[in-house]
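Hi R.,

As promised on Friday, here is the backbone we talked about, encoded as structure tokens. Could you run it through your design pipeline when you get a chance and send me back a sequence?
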């Protein structure tokens, strides 16, 4: 067991998240602007580096040129050239400028867990680091919820006639979870049938539709093709992916890149579910009173056909 009160540490950290994200949102970010320009106008390698850094800005202070190069899939020399071509003498110089922009806030999570790290057993160090990274990911997700893009997505999911949801590979489960939860809130939410092979629910619908796609590396070809076809058809696309996706901004109206590396053997998409819950909560708030009426109707229907354990009120049809 840890020699510090883990729950107390986490609660203290979470208590700072709201004020911290508010301060971050208000800060001038010339480094972010530089990265955004590189994402729009740079070479393929430049775009990959800029995309990763923009999607995981809070993790950049903990990276080295070598570790960043390894994650993006380029050489360390390419990272150096990227920095110099964008006005920095080195990757270290870029990080120093970023630190000045953010006022030290990206270092907050690490500092707040410093006592826990010092007191953790040697063989649990990887767990401590993993927990730190997951908490940082939660902070990143709550930062997304403060952006204009987030508000646009929430309104769209509440107001469009038809919401289509697609997930590929292991992200199919998250897509189904999102679609099922959304179906409690509103009508005409469809989980796209991957087996059909034509995505007609989204691409051949006569209704005013939007599309939400869940995908993480290695990316399914179908995810990119579906996003591109939907965008060409005038269907707004929201892509929820990992921080390594360098093609998403070319085929989606919004990209929410979620951290997936938490010092574990396998990438974890668990924080995509956290992002889903925040979006669902936003849609609930946007829809208001009609949601409560719909939830009541669904609960009665479930009670009539299936029933809940220990519920004496439900009268199951026979």
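Update: got your reply. Pasting your designed sequence below so it's all in one thread:
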């Amino acid at each position: 067991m840890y020699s510090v009160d883990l729950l107390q540490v986490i609660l203290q950290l979470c208590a700072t998240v709201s004020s911290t994200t508010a301060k971050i949102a208000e800060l001038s970010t010339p480094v972010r602007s530089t990265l955004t320009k590189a994402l729009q106008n740079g070479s393929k390698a430049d775009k990959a580096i800029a995309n990763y850094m923009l999607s995981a800005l809070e993790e950049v202070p903990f990276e080295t040129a070598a570790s960043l190069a390894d994650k993006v899939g380029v050489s360390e020399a390419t990272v150096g050239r990227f920095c110099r071509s964008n006005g920095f003498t080195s990757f270290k110089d870029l990080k120093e400028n970023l630190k000045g922009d953010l006022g030290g806030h990206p270092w907050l999570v690490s500092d707040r867990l410093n006592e826990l790290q010092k007191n953790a057993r040697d063989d649990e160090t990887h767990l401590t680091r993993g927990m730190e990274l997951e908490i940082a990911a939660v902070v990143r997700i709550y930062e997304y919820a403060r952006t204009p893009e987030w508000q646009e997505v929430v309104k769209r999911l509440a107001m469009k006639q038809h919401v289509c949801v697609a997930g590929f590979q292991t992200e199919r489960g998250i897509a189904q979870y999102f679609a099922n939860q959304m179906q409690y809130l509103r009508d005409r939410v469809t989980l796209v049938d991957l087996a059909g092979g034509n995505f007609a629910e989204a691409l051949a619908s006569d209704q005013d539709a939007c599309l939400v796609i869940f995908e993480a590396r290695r990316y399914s070809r179908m995810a990119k093709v579906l996003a591109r076809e939907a965008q060409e058809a005038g269907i707004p696309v929201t892509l929820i992916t990992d921080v390594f996706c360098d093609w998403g901004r070319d085929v989606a109206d919004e990209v929410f890149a979620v951290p997936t590396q938490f010092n574990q053997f396998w990438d974890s998409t668990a924080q995509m579910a956290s992002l889903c819950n925040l979006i669902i909560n936003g849609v609930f708030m946007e829809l208001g009173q009609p949601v409560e009426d719909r939830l009541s109707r669904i609960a009665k229907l479930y009670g009539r056909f299936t029933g809940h354990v220990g519920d004496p009120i439900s009268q199951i049809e026979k």
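One thing I noticed while checking it: Confidence is low (pLDDT under 50) at residues 16-28, 103-109.

Thanks again,
M.
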